[in-house]
Amino acid sequence: MDVNEATQETRFAFGRNWANFLKKVDEPRIAAATLSLMDMLAVDRLDNQRFLDIGCGSGLASLVAHRLGAIVHSFDFDKASVACSHEIKRKFGNESPSWRVEQGSVLDDEYLQSLGLFDIVYSWGVLHHTGQMDQAIENVTHRVAPGGLLYITIYNDQGAASRRWGW
Fold first, then answer.
1. Cα 159 to Cα 148, 162, 163, 165, 166, distances in angstroms
2. What per-residue string of b and e applies to 1-33 under the rule 16 or more CB within 10 Å gives b?
3. DSSP collapsed to 3 states, the chain
4. For residue range 63-121, what is the model confidence (pLDDT) as tens digits?
């Protein structure tokens, strides 16, 4: 793990938020997330596509990709987020070997290289939280297979509106 990345103890505990969110996950919410992912990726199915979910958080995106037929690898730096992804997998996704969840860091290039290449590399609102966004983006681009898709979102500062939201 990169020594410059914040430690578990100094980072915001996203996993606690995801644990609260999991209490609200039901089939209608999963259906809405499924439609959203299908629309974003412009697909109807992901059969046998390798899908990497970086900073998997609650595991909802991974669940949706799995249900759409993808071979999914989910990871998060936050241990509690990993636990949430395991729980959503257990509760809604079965224990299929085509979906793997583990702890890892997007800044650990050796770890990322060990994962191989993916048809879809997906990271929603994560990479800017590493403290090394440019390096994180560089690292994830190397996980995209030829002809594959990199789908990332990064939040930007909206000034007063962002401060109000944070409050």
1. 35, 5, 6, 10, 11
2. ebeebeeeeeeeebbebbbeebeebeeeebeeb
3. CCCCCCCCCCCCCHHHHHHHHHCCCCHHHHHHHHHHHHHHHCCCCCCCCEEEEECCCCCHHHHHHHHCCCEEEEEECCHHHHHHHHHHHHHHHCCCCCEEEEECCCCCHHHHHHHCCEEEEEEECCHHHHCCHHHHHHHHHCCEEEEEEEEEECCCCCCHHHHHHHC
4. 999 999 999 999 999 899 999 999 999 999 877 889 999 999 999 999 999 999 999 99
User: Are the beta carbons of 49 and 71 closer than 8 angstroms?
Assistant: yes
- Output the CA–CA distances (angstroms, integers) from residue 21 to 24, 60, 88, in the order listed: 5, 10, 11
- Global confidence as pTM: 0.84
Cα–Cα distance for residue pair 160/109, rounded to 1 Å? 36
